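Quick one, probably user error.
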């Protein structure tokens, strides 16, 4: 299976970081507030992140980062 982490853009990375920091299922509004991103943009990005296997939805309207998502995040070059 090819590495897909290169398909993540800056917003995807911010979302995954926020989800990892929250550490529990959260709605796009809460994730957006934590990451400083508009909730509508977070919700739109969730479709891509879910398709890639980086997030899952354990309950309606809430998302959590997967182990694959954590690995993709850790594989990103440090930009800070």
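Nope, works fine. Designed sequence:
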């Amino acid at each position: 299976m090819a590495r897909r982490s290169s398909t993540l853009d800056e917003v995807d990375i911010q979302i995954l970081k926020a989800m990892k920091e929250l550490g529990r299922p959260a709605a796009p509004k809460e994730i957006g507030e934590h990451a400083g991103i508009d909730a509508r943009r977070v919700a739109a990005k969730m479709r891509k992140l879910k398709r890639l296997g980086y997030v899952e939805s354990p309950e309606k309207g809430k998302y959590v980062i997967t182990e694959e998502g954590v690995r993709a995040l850790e594989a990103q070059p440090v930009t800070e």
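The beta strands are 55-59, 62-65.
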